[in-house]
Amino acid sequence: MSNTVSRRSVLGKIGATLAGVLALPVARTAKAAVQKVLVSTGAAKGYDPTKHKWVMAIDANRCIGCGLCAEACKKENHVPEGPYFRTWVERYVITKPEPGSGAARGETLVDCPEGGMHGFPPISVPKDEVQHSFFVPKLCNLCQHSPCVQVCPVGATFDAPDGAVLIDPKYCIGCGFCIQACPYGCRFLSPITKTAEKCTLCYHRITRGLKPACVEVCPTQARVFGDLKNPVPDDPIQHFYQNNRVQALKPHLGTEPRVFYAGIDKEVR
Amino acid sequence: MTNAVTNVVLELAPHFEGYVYPNEATQQPLWSVLIVLYPYITGLVAGAFIMASLVRVFNVKALEPVYRMSLLTAFAFLLCAPLPLLFHLGHPERCYEVMMTPHLTSPMAIFGFVYAWYLMAVLLLELWFDYREDFVKWSESTPGFKGILYRLFTVGVTDISEPAVKLDHRIGHILSVVGIPSAFLLHGYVGFIFGSVKANPWWGNVLMPIIFIMSAMVSGIALCVFNYMVLSWIRRKTVDMKCLDVMCMFLFYALVIDAAIEGLDWIHRIYSAEEGFQVMQYMAREKLFYTLSLGQVACGTLVPLLMLGLLQLIRKRVPELARRRMYFASAALIMVGVLAMRWNVVIGGQLFSKSLRGVMSYKMEFAGLEGWFMGAVLLSLPFIILTVFIKLFLAEKPPGGQVAGGSR
Questions:
Q1: What are the chain B neighbours of A147 within 8 Å (beta carbons)?
Q2: Measured between alpha carbons, how far is A112 from B19 in angstroms, rounded to an integer?
Q3: What DSSP string runs through A101-136?
Q4: Residue A173 and residue B94: Cβ atoms within 8 Å?
Q5: Has residue B211 been placed in a domain?
Q6: A88-95 and A130-138 as β-strands: parallel, antiparallel, unpaired?
Q7: Do B103 and A110 touch (CB under 8 A)?
Q8: Which end of chain B has fewer surrounding CB within 10 Å, N or C?
Q9: Long-range Cβ pairs for the range B57-60 (8 Å, 24+)
Q10: Is the Cβ–Cβ distance between A249 and A260 less than 8 Å?
Q11: Whole-angstrom distance, CA of residue B276 vs CA of residue B262
Q12: Is there a contact between B139 and B151 (Cβ–Cβ < 8 Å)?
């Protein structure tokens, strides 16, 4: 046998590479199909996640801090009692600077009693010392590069094709790595199921044509929800993008959140 | 009544300053003492193995008396390394999924494979090739249960002709060479589990794997010094001072590199003073004062550095007894210091909110899965296993009265 490269072997290798490239989309489709059958998501029967792209946006200018959203979420999703929240509302109070201090702003005080579920007590600083005060609803930021998905050792948490970041509770081993990796504090280890839990955008509702519970109960429409793949006439989410300059939380971490905020401040983390 | 008491406990226990995200306001950190022990035990394994490799690969003849003991130490601790991790899981019965369907972008997913590789392909094989000749001899000369045990360990390979034994040594050498990068991988990888968390400024750090590797080497060598001295004391044997001097020389140099890298890490943090620096400064000054400033820096690094450094300079002028005591104190302090370092990394990283606006407190409970008692049990377990190993494989008098194969 000579050591020269034969035409047959080169053609064989090119053929194998081509076959590999062609097999990729097939493999992806197969993976999606397997996921559909095996993964428990609470989606409606016949729901096709590839035909939607769900997203939520927050107009903090509208939020009055009533906390109905946090309460509705707890009830709708049977979130355990205690310090466990899939969504919550924070109150920011930025005080005026000391006169003559040369500072533009005073202190930033943040609170969130019981996730804001039952509203907020009166502000502890006298009214005339407050420079700004506003509420910020928080939820899963639906990151495009989710660190929580990246670190899950078994792949129990995953990016659904429709934009939701979900957890398969039958698969999660409860190691807590995703909770450590989420920069926004949106996950918790359920004391009941011993698995990680988070906002699913009320997946059991949105896959049946309903809105997430928090959006449904918000009296001021501070939470805007929509499907980017199926815009409706007068789509609130399109209105939100057109009418606001938006911000994302902790953009320096490169997680590329898909939840955009209008009307927040640099102090919001 | 019960309700009232429970309520009081719930109100008293969590203690926060500033603002923490509502999901962070739990009574104890998500990863607590068990996850402190996991990198500690894994590090001891890697360090003890490197110690053994100094003999095999780098041919440091003076360390031959501790070669087998270092390997057995690494093995005993490796058997216990995944236990804290396993007990900590919400669903330990699903742990096999990490190996059945690993998610390849996860730093934790590969642990099962790295662990299995290190246990099965490196340590177990190296030990077997090293002991095979002795197993054959001991199985012939030892009666009773022990004899059967040794016969089982030979796995039926009873050829102890000169070429066969030579081959054993060669394979052992190759395994040792492969073992060094594997030990680095095992522990560097544990460092990466923390270093990869960019959400946490205390952890997300490119130096983390290197810091973990170096502190692992330091703690592992210190453990070997500690074990060797304790074993000699129990057996009323005189310590081989040449061996101890060389061990502690390596311990000193490893500690110098470790301290330099950890110092570099802090200098970088202080100089760059990125987002979250204020809260980290507060942590170091207040929350972790005892474990960081006193435990890790003063007792675990500076005092041993001074003692070991001094002995490098004026070794010959210090009497043997004083030298032994200084070595022993240094090794013990270093082991406590590295445990404090693991605590500072794991618990420290969870004592401040990711909102960077508040800090939490943590009081360890006594009983329960994440308590003092469980921690003490898990930390004692490898020492108990090691005692059994030493009784079986490093007996004072060779089994059956025959001369064993020496140190190697």
A1: 197-199
A2: 8
A3: S--S---EEEE-GGGGTT--PPPSS-GGGEEEEEEE
A4: yes
A5: yes
A6: antiparallel
A7: no
A8: N
A9: B57/B173, B57/B176, B57/B177, B57/B180, B60/B246
A10: no
A11: 19
A12: yes
The yes-or-no verdict on residue B125 having pLDDT over 60 is yes
Nearest CA to A156 out of B31, B38, B91 is that of B91
CATH T-level topology, domain A42-269: Alpha-Beta Plaits (3.30.70)
The first and second tokens of residue A210, run together, are 């309903």
| B90/A176 Cβ within 8 A | yes
How many residues are present in chain B?
Answer: 408
Q: Give the tokens for residue A135.
A: 């509420």
The answer to whether residues B58 and B202 touch, using CB atoms and an 8 Å cutoff, is no
Residue type, B126: E
Instruction: Please check whether residue B15 lies inside any domain of the structure.
Output: no
Q: List all residues 6 or more positions away from B35 whose beta carbon is below 8 Å from its beta carbon.
A: B84, B85, B88, B346
Cα–Cα dist B207/B188, whole Å? 10
Cα–Cα–Cα angle for A56, A58, A64, rounded to 5 degrees? 135
Q: State how many domains chain B has.
A: 1
Q: What is the ipTM of this complex?
A: 0.90
Which of B91, B104, B110 has the most A C-beta neighbours within 10 Å, making it the best mutation to test the interface with A? Answer: B91
The pLDDT tens digits of the residues spanning A223-260 come to 999 999 999 999 999 999 999 999 999 999 999 999 99
Residue type, B127: L
φ/ψ of A196, rounded to 5, equals -75, 145
Find the domain containing B268 and state its range. 25-391
The answer to whether A198 and B48 have CB atoms below 8 angstroms apart is no
How far is Cα B304 from Cα B111, in angstroms, rounded to an integer?
32
b/e code A170-188 from CB counts within 10 Å (16+ = b): ebbbbbbbbbbbbbbbbbb
**Residue whose C-alpha is closest to residue B211's, from B273, B269, B145:** B269
Residue B196 is assigned to a structural domain of this protein: yes
d(CA A52, CA A29): 16
Structure tokens at A12: 């064989």
Residue of B88, B91, B198 lying closest to A147 (CB–CB): B198
Virtual CA dihedral for B350, B353, B354, B356, nearest 10 degrees? -130
User: Under a CB-based contact definition with an 8 Å cutoff, are residues A258 and A163 in contact?
Assistant: yes
Rounded Cα–Cα distance for residues A9 and A178 (Å): 46
- The encoded tokens of residue B286 equal 């207040």
Distance in angstroms (rounded) separating the CA atoms of residues B341 and B349 = 12
Contact A184 B88 (CB under 8 A): no
Give per-residue pLDDT as tens, A5-28. 677 777 888 888 888 788 877 776
Residues of B in contact with A171 (CB under 8 A): 94, 97
How high does pLDDT run on average in chain B? 91
Closest-CA distance, B366 to chain A, in angstroms, reads 20
Question: In the structure encoding, which two tokens stand for residue B354, read together?
Answer: 């990711």
Percent of chain B with pLDDT over 90: 78
